[in-house]
Design brief:
By secondary structure, the chain is of the alpha+beta class. 50% of the residues lie in helices and 29% in strands. It has one domain (2-132).
């Protein structure tokens, strides 16, 4: 009879085996939660940078659409649509007549860290360039 009873006791899991299994399971779950958290932060950062690129292009296109540029410094924000983003724009004379250097910097704060994207281009005034040729 003793044989049947000890065989029956061996069919289950011991407390040590259960603790080891729960520890391994917990480590796996924590790794998955951390991976999910990192992926959410990465997606959020990607969205912020993409928005900054489009906002810088919008400021640049609006400025170039106005026509002839003059050396100036401008700054502002993007209103309620993008409350965390602001911009600074500097237009300066380049080394050659008829060329203007345009810098647009978009700034924002993400998780208490200041971030920025800078877009720089040259603008050529055709009338001035053709007159100098």
């Amino acid at each position: 009879m003793k044989t049947k009873r000890s065989k029956r006791l061996r069919e289950g899991f011991s407390l040590t085996e259960l603790v080891a299994a729960m520890t391994i399971f917990s480590v796996g779950v924590m790794a998955c939660v951390e991976l999910y958290s990192v992926s959410l932060r990465s997606a959020s950062d990607s969205l912020d940078y993409t928005q900054a690129v489009f906002l810088a292009q919008r400021i640049l296109e609006d400025t170039l659409a106005e026509g002839a540029l003059t050396a100036s410094i401008d700054s502002g924000d993007f209103g309620e649509a993008y409350p965390r983003h602001s911009y600074e724009m500097e237009i300066e004379d380049a080394d050659q007549d008829g060329l203007m250097l345009v810098h647009v910097t978009v700034m924002w704060t993400a998780r208490n860290v200041e971030k920025q994207y800078e877009l720089t281009t040259l603008y050529a005034d055709r009338e001035v360039l053709e007159a100098s040729l």
